[in-house]
Amino acid sequence: MSQSHESPSFPKRIPFKVDIAGIIEIMGTSLYSNPNTPIRELLQNAHDAIMRRRARDLSYQGRIDVTQNEMHRTISFHDNGIGLSPAEAEEYLGTLGIGITGLIKKGFTAENPDAQMPASKKDGSALIGQFGIGLFSGFMLAERIVVESLRFEGEQAIRWEAGAGTEIELSASNKTTPGTSVTLYLKPNYTIFAEDEQLIEDSIKQYADFLPIPIYLNESKARINLIQASWLDPTPDQENMIEELASYFGETPLDTIPIAMESPVSVRGALYVTPQRTPGFADEATIAVSVRRMIISRHIRELIPGWAPFLRGVLELPDCSPTSNREDLVRDAVFLAVCESLEHAIYEHFEKIADREPSRWQSILQWHRYTFAGMAVYDDRLRSLLARTYRFNTSQGELTLIDILDKSRADELVETDVDYVIWYNADRRQETWMNEFFRSTGVPCVHTFRSFEETLLASMLGQNKSLRSELRPASPSSSNFTESILGIEQRKEAGSEWQEFLAKLNINLFVASSRNSPPVLAFINERYELSKTFQEIKDSGDLPKGFERIIQQHFDRMPADKNDVILNQHHKVIKKALQQGPTGSMAHMLRVLVMGAMNKAGATISPEAMEYQAIDLNAIADILDP
Description:
By secondary structure, this protein is of the alpha+beta class. It contains 21 helices and 21 strands. Among the domains are: 20-217, Histidine kinase-like ATPase, C-terminal domain (Heat Shock Protein 90), CATH 3.30.565; 230-340, Ribosomal Protein S5, domain 2. The strands form five sheets. It has a seven-stranded mixed β-sheet with strand order 5-4-3-6-2-1-7. The chain has a five-stranded mixed β-sheet with strand order 8-9-12-10-11, sandwiched between helices. Strands 18-19-21-20 form a four-stranded mixed β-sheet. Helix 11 crosses helix 14.
C-alpha cells in the first residue's frame, strides 16, 4: 500500500531550539580555562552591585565577604550592594546573555529594560560585567547554586535555586539585610574550594587585588585585596612604585615607565624593564591587565611592541573590551589604539633617558644588548636611537656610529664614489691582529663579534639614504684595504705554481710589497671557517638532516670565500723563496711561515695540510745541516 508524503512548504520561519541543560554544561565546563574563574565572576557581580548602590548613596562604602564551609561543601559570596527584587531575580538570573550590568552599560534601566535612560543619568562606567553569563560559570564547580537577595529599599527577599537541569526554583527568603549571597554547592571533585583557604585567597588576589571594595575571607578582620597601587595614583611616587612592582612580580625592575594618558584612549599603570634576559625573539612581553580594576589576566600579549620583549608591567585599560570568557582582550580598534599609544610612550621614555641620563640608558642597553641589537635591525625608530647611543667595540675602544663616521672619512684622492669607508672585523680571533694594523692609521676597525652587530651596523648606514658610505670587511680582498690600512703596495695574485704548492691550505694567495710588514700576513674569512666546521660536523654524521638542508641552503645563497694570505716580497726570506720558485729549498721555509701566520690569525688548518709540516721541517733540517 503506497504512503503519501506531504511536501513541506517553503519558505518558512522557525525558532532557535536550545538545550538548556546542554548550555549550562557548556557554560560551566567549556567556556573558561581555569577552575577558579567562578571566583572572579562572582566577585565581579558583587562589585557591580555595590557600585550601583554607591551611585545612589554617596556615603555608602560596601564590602564583599567570601566564606568556606568544609562540612557542607560550599563556598559563598556575600555583598551588601543594591540587591535584587523578586522580579529582577526571575527576569535576569536565569536568562543567558541578558545581565543587569550589560543593560545599564547600554543605557537601559534594570527596572524597565524597554526604556532607555537619559545619557546624563547613565551609571555604567564603573561597572565590570557585560555578558549576563557570569553566574553560570558557577556550574563549573557546583552541582547546585543558591542565590538569596534583598533589594536596597526593598521589602521582599527572594531565593533563587538551580541545578544542572532546566528548571529554576524561586521562593521567599528570610534575608533581612540588603545585598546578595551566592552559594555554590560544590561537585565532589571540587571540594578543595571549600577546604583550602590559601587557594581562595590567592584567587582573590589574582583577580580582585585592585578592586576599590574591601574583600574579606572567612570573617577575617583584615581585607584580602590590596585595593590601591601606586601606579594607579594620579601622581605616583617613583620609589613606592618600584617597591610595589617588585613585590607584585617577584623581581626588581631595572627601570620603570609610568603610564598615564587619557587620549586617544585611557591607560594608567606602569611598565618596567625586567632583569631577566630574554633568551630569544620567541619570547614576548606579557602584561597584567585590569579593566575597571578587575584583573583580566597577568599574561596579556601583543600590547607591547615586538621589539621590547624585556618589558613587564600592569595596566588599567577601562576602554578595552574583554572577551566573553574575560580571560583576554578583544583585538579591536581600541586595542590597536592602546598598542600605538604605549609604543609611543615607550619610545619617548627611552629617548628621554638616553639624552638626560646616558649612564642609566647604557646600563639598560648593555643588559639587554642582544635584544636591542637584533630588534633594531627591523625597527627604524629604535635603530635611530641606537645609532647615537649603541657602542660598538672598535680598535679605538667603544664608539657609537656617529663617532665611527667622524673617524672614517674616505680619502678623496682614492675614494671618489663614497664619503665614508667603515671597516669591520667579524672574527674575534683577529681582534688583536687587526688592532695592530689599524693603530697607526687613525681609522677605527669595528669588531662585530656579538650577535646581530654586523647586520645592525649595515642597517644603520643604510637608513640614511643621503649618506654616501660603504661597509667593508677588513680583508685584503676588500678595495683599498692593503694600500690604506696595511701600507702594502703592488698587490697581485701569486703565480699558479705557488697556488698549486700551497693547494692543501685552500687560500687566496697574494704577493705585495711593504717595508714595515712581516714576511706573511694571513686574514680569516669567518664564513669560510664556518663552512669548514659545518662540513666536518656533516662528515661525522652528527648533523640532523633538517639542519643540514637549512645550512646548506644558506651557503648556497652566499658562498663562503677562502682565507687570504699575503706574501711580502720585500722581506728577504720571501723574496729569495719567490726567486727560487716552489722547487727551491726556500719554498719549505715560505710554507712554514704561511702556516704560522694562519695559526696566529686563528685559522683552522686541515689534517691534510698539516702533512706539509713534517715534510717542510725535514727539508729545512737538511738545509741547515747538509
